[in-house]
Amino acid sequence: MNILLVEDNPADARLVAEVMKEGRFHAVLHHVEDGVEAMAFLRQEPPFENKPRPDLLLLDLNMPRKDGWEVLEEIRADDALATLPVIILTTSDVHSDVRRAYSRHANCFLTKPVELDEFIKMITLLKDFWLTAVRLPGA
Predict the structure, then answer these.
(1) ∠ at Cα 60 (66, 42), nearest 5°?
(2) pTM beyond cutoff 0.85
(3) Sheet-wide strand order for 56-59
(4) What DSSP string runs through the chain?
(5) Domains in the chain, ordered, with CATH?
(6) Model confidence over 20-30: pLDDT tens digits?
(7) Sorted alphabetically, which keywords does the UniProt record give (predicted)?
(8) Cα-based angle 110, 111, 114 (whole degrees, multiple of 5)
(9) pLDDT digits over 67-116, tens only?
(10) How far apart (Å, rounded) are the C-alpha atoms in residues 72 and 88?
(11) Which end of the chain has less neighbouring CB within 10 Å, N or C?
(12) CA 82, CA 101: separation in Å to the nearest integer?
């Protein structure tokens, strides 16, 4: 299983990677820093032409160059990517963002907890549900 993390905050990206490593995720984590890189990765365009198509996308909303909203809309408009499960992983807990994400067909909306223990717990729950219980379209 391959997971693409689209996250511009290096500390958050490092934390997700560490939690996945410690939690013994049976997945390979790929990381890009913004929406432009995310779409290039997903479409296997340079410099990502040899990267695997991810089975799951963890998408931050607030990023430079191309934000998560634009990425989500592009994914859902592209027949080759439309079934990719997209989990919004963001600092936002604004109800309008939650509604907007689901109206654009995000599969899940998670607000990053501030406390480290809660963040670890959330990523572990993500693993238990999305990597264990759920049958993904690409898997």
Answers:
(1) 65
(2) yes
(3) 28-32, 2-6, 56-59, 86-90, 108-111
(4) -EEEEE-S-HHHHHHHHHHHHHTT-SSEEEEESSHHHHHHHHTT-TT-TTSPPPSEEEE-S--SSS-HHHHHHHHHH-TTTTTS-EEEEES---HHHHHHHHHTT-SEEEEPPSSHHHHHHHHHHHIIIIIIIPPPTT-
(5) 2-132 (3.40.50.2300)
(6) 888 777 789 99
(7) Phosphoprotein
(8) 140
(9) 999 999 999 999 999 999 999 999 888 999 999 999 999 999 999 998 98
(10) 9
(11) C
(12) 15
pLDDT at 95: 93
* Residue linked to tokens 């998408």: 59
* Residue count of the chain: 139
Nearest 5°: phi and psi at 72? -60, -45
